[in-house]
Amino acid sequence: MDNNTPSVPDRRQEYDDNPATQRETSSALGWLLLYSTAMFTLPFAAFYSTRYALTHYLHIDGFPNTCGSVVAAVLVVNLIILLYALRGYEDAKEDDNHTPPEDGTSEGKVESKKKQ
């Protein structure tokens, strides 16, 4: 084995200690916390605000009121899941376009447009 090339654990440690990697990790955890909070609070808000609006403004009570409130909460949950999936898709697309720097000083990007 050549003494100049770092071993696999050394490369992994360099990757983990890289400030860009730490930023990506903290960013991912921040987004997860945001979506988790939204998933917990927004359906409740949608349910009770729809229930209030149907009762006080449209004078709908009983089963139609409950059904409309539940539908609003389910739609909010599905919207949050859709937004979370789109965020993950965009992050994955960004990672696919990223190439490691060759000289170690700047980050490289792959151009997706072809020059004509």
How many individual helices?
3
Tell me the Rg in angstroms: 24 Å
What kind of sheet is the major sheet?
A: 2 strands, antiparallel
Low-pLDDT sequence parts: 108-116
Strand order of the largest sheet: 1-2
- Helix content class: over 70%
Order of helices and strands: HHHEE
According to DSSP, the number of beta strands is 2
Alpha-carbon distance between the two ends: 45 Å
Query: How big a fraction of the residues is strand?
Result: under 5%
Shape annotation: rod-shaped
How would you classify the quaternary structure? Answer: single chain
Mean pLDDT: 82
Structural class comes to: mainly alpha
Summarize the structure.
This protein is mainly alpha-helical and 116 residues long.
Structure characterization notes:
The chain is mainly α and 116 residues long. It has a domain at 40-96. The protein has 3 helices and 2 strands, in the order H-H-H-E-E. The chain has helices at 8-17, 19-56, 63-97; strands spanning 98-99, 108-109. It has a two-stranded antiparallel sheet with strand order 1-2. Helix 2 (19-56) runs antiparallel to helix 3 (63-97). Residues 1-22, 92-116 are annotated as: Disordered. This is Vacuolar ATPase assembly integral membrane protein VMA21 homolog. InterPro entries: Vma21. One of its GO terms (biological process) is vacuolar proton-transporting V-type ATPase complex assembly.
